[in-house]
Design a protein that fits this description.
With 335 residues, the protein is an alpha/beta fold. Helices cover 21% and strands 25% of the residues. It has one domain: Ribonuclease Z/Hydroxyacylglutathione hydrolase-like (Metallo-beta-lactamase, Chain A, 4-Layer Sandwich). The strands form two sheets. The chain has a nine-stranded mixed beta sheet with strand order 7-8-9-10-11-12-13-16-15. The radius of gyration is 19 Å and the shape is globular. The structure holds zinc ion. The site of zinc ion (ZN) has 8 residues, from loops.
Length: 335
């Protein structure tokens, strides 16, 4: 399916695909269509232009379609300098003012940038609310995107989860949040102690448990997308256990392959309303493995049924299947 399949999409619609996520590169694509306006927004530019173009082409998109870019921060796995010359001239690149000095160092200032310090609007009319969070020296931006009937929270490379972050993203339809490491695997990993301290010290990354707790507190309406899993210190199976039985469907991103499209809001279908007072239940109900390509996606049974009825998962046949995770490719990363 491509974005040109308008006959199966509501008139007002937004959806997210994580092209890749991890310390080897992060890039997601957000396509939205509201009030007759379509926009294609990249969130982070951590893959090479060539690889990004190839991934977009498989979705029926071209680099020339890109109208906006949101940059969470400018670490090399989120912003490759080659993009300064590779983006369409009329694409709006949105960058936090505190990241401008780093943009100058990396050469991103060679192209016009839209510097933000507070809320702003994307080309499609979505309102973007940025929130600065601790991460290394320069910090990172967590975004909340609001459309008239739907919302997305996007938060990665977080030092920790704060009350401010929870309040900022509370009740979004789709929450994309990092789930970087398993603490036991991190402690046992053959990597420098300073790196472990940096990652786990409150200004690095979120553990699986921290991510699950954040999702529980934020209480997304429909879907959680888990980002930035460490190859060396995490396992998709461990991540999936943290979210089994939750009131939302969830997708685990990959270093190497794109997720399927995750719909943001369902304006033409009844919404699943989670019981906000109920904590995430780990391992209490059977899960379904959705038959997808290059990703791991799960849903608790009731929500999977709702999603199927709403046409969100056209490949889902409702049959119960054992929980399976795609094996991770070997490799060493820094997070
Ligand atoms: Zn990163």
């Amino acid at each position: 399916m491509t974005v040109t399949d308008d006959h199966v999409q509501p008139a007002d619609h937004a959806r997210l695909c994580v092209l890749a996520s991890g310390s080897s590169g992060n890039c997601s694509v957000l396509v939205s269509q509201h009030s007759g306006r379509r926009s294609v927004c990249l969130i982070d530019l951590g893959l090479s232009p060539r690889r990004t173009s190839a991934a977009l082409a498989k979705l029926g998109l071209w680099l020339s379609d890109v109208t906006d870019v949101l940059l969470t921060h400018l670490d090399i796995d989120h912003c490759q300098p080659a993009w300064a010359a590779a983006l369409p001239a009329d694409a709006h690149v949105h960058i936090f003012r505190g990241h401008v000095p780093e943009a100058e160092r990396t050469g991103m200032l060679a192209r016009p940038l839209r510097v933000f310090t507070s809320d702003f609007e994307l080309s499609c009319g979505a309102e973007v609310s940025p929130l600065r969070m601790p991460h290394d020296l320069e910090g990172v931006i967590a975004f909340r995107l609001n459309w008239p009937r739907s919302s997305l929270g996007f938060a990665t490379d977080l030092g920790r989860v704060t009350d401010g972050l929870v309040g900022h993203l509370a009740g979004v339809d789709v929450l994309a949040i990092e789930s970087n490491y398993d603490p036991m695997m991190q402690r046992r990993a053959a990597r420098p102690e300073f790196l472990k301290r940096r990652i786990m010290g409150g200004s690095g990354h979120l553990s699986n448990a921290q991510a699950a707790e954040a999702a529980q507190r934020i209480a997304p309406r429909d879907h959680v997308v888990l980002l930035h899993l460490s190859r060396q210190c995490n396992d998709p199976e461990l991540v999936s256990r943290m979210h089994e039985g939750a009131d939302y469907a969830f997708t685990i991103s990959s270093h190497d392959l794109p997720t399927r499209w995750v719909n943001i809001g369902r304006p033409d279908a009844p919404r699943a309303v989670p019981d906000r007072a109920r904590p995430v239940r780990n391992g209490r109900s059977a899960s379904l493995r959705l038959p997808t390509d290059g990703q791991t996606e799960f849903a608790s049974q009731p929500l999977a049924r709702i999603a199927f009825q709403a046409g969100l998962f056209p490949l889902l046949d409702g049959a119960e299947a054992p929980l399976q995770c795609r094996p991770q490719a070997p490799g060493i990363d820094q997070a």
